[in-house]
Amino acid sequence: MLLALAGLPGCYLRQAYYVSPFNGNTNDYHNQPTLRDSARSAIFVNGTYFTGQANDDHTDTYKAFHTEIYRSHHGKFLQGYYGLDLTLGDFATGRWDTVKSDVSNADPRGRRYGPPLHASELNEYAGHRFFGGTGFNGGINLVIPIHHGEWRYFGLETSLQREFGDYLGFRKHLSDTLATLVARNNFYGTLGFSSEILWNLHHGELGLRLATGSVMGRDYNNVNIYNNSSHGPLRFHYTTFSFHFTNRQYTGFFQANFATKSLSAHFGFTYRLNRPRVGQPVRKYKYKIWR
After folding, report:
1. What gap in Å lies between CA 58 and CA 159, rounded to an integer?
2. pTM score, two decimals?
3. What is the distance between the alpha carbons of residues 90 and 61, in angstroms, rounded to a whole number?
4. Which distant-in-sequence residues (6+ apart) come within 8 Å of 289 by Cβ?
5. In whole angstroms, what is the distance from residue 233 CA to residue 204 CA?
6. What structural domains does the chain harbor?
7. If you ran DSSP here, which 8-state letter would residue 172 be given?
8. pLDDT for 104-121, tens place per residue?
């Protein structure tokens, strides 16, 4: 049946990907002291709940809690942070529909899709599995003041995670012949770039941040796989969009994460252990972008 569907004009089979649950989920928003803060360093703790979908056609789902402690430093035009984190969650491998395929529903380009070639065998592994991980997060920003705020115009960020749990064990024992890609390594790392703009409030600030980057490691690079969805080589990357609001020592943020074969929403809260101390106003700096 599946081979017959694949033979229809413009019809493709879904591809099954079983990779790290951290795919697209390792770079949460990190609050840092602003330029007007006279304290040159600060320690933060945060907690984040995130939930999302993974695999081709968003067949799998996941949810997790992430917590982190990190330290941040800042100077006149340079900021940076580094810290350690812990993540615990649930990953649910979904069932592929082998009876009613998607061939009757074409996408805007006229492409039609059926289930993966080994969908029936993969369905035997459907279910919930625990996953967790510990890791390091760090970043650095170049920053300049603007009227009523600051612009962290260029940033570098990295995340290095070491995974453990049942979902990792599942991937290590899953046959390569059943899926398009199986990532068995417990290491997951990213390297990315960011830009952020903040507006000062009386007792805090609000800001918007955009980041994008790539995944490190041999399981995610040079895999020589043709992606049926994008109709091009498979490349693992991520993009995040964050909004945050800070009042004194408390920060709440929302972050939307878009990654290769994964998308998620993050809801987080950050607490600053030492109280912010507002020094000279931003307008006292010599360098300004606009009025």
Report:
1. 24
2. 0.87
3. 9
4. 144, 145, 146, 147, 151
5. 44
6. 15-90+133-284 (2.40.160)
7. H
8. 445 555 567 788 888 999
